[in-house]
Amino acid sequence: MDKRFKLLFPHAEIQKRIDSIAAQMTKDLEGKNPLFIAVLNGAFMFAADLMKAVQFPCEITFVKMSSYRGMESCGKVQNLIGLDRDIEDRHIVIIEDIVDSGLSMKTLINYLQDFKPASLRIACCTYKPAALKCPLSLDYVGFEVENLFLVGYGLDYDGYGRNFEDIYVLAEQPGQEN
Length: 178
Ligand code: 5GP
Ligand code: MG
What we know:
This protein is of the alpha/beta class. 22% of the residues lie in helices and 28% in strands.
């Protein structure tokens, strides 16, 4: 990697947040047979840890909608692929790695709402409130972060770093010189 990153959230801290989100989900969703929809690629690690923490019967499936190249969100959202379940009357929880502009989440919600789910919730590992470009209500948020570029725990920098168990922040943000 040609950039320097510094540790932001060690895995133990992430796990703590996941455990408290899972406890909240138990209150909200136990007995409702929810279907979790994890957004690939970035959410794979958050989804795996969250699913291990959730102790009630539930299902999970995976979709893909990519809108990010390098370090700038281009705002162009590609088609959704991989939705393989009937979601009508189901309680849905979208699992996302990070909400930045919120545009991809908004697009996904609009798409899923057409299929008339019983309810639609969003769980995201990280959220950048200052970057949000459209109104969005987030039900479960791991960490609110500044408008900085993050890597690790599913988040990549040009394909690398998804395998890190901790979350890192780019040491020098674009336009900043050291
Ligand atoms: P949006 O701008 O639509 O909310 O974000 C779309 C996608 O961009 C996210 O799901 C994530 O995959 C990617 N993204 C947004 N911010 C970051 C970031 O700080 N680091 C990385 N690696 N990806 C990001
Ligand atoms: Mg994503």
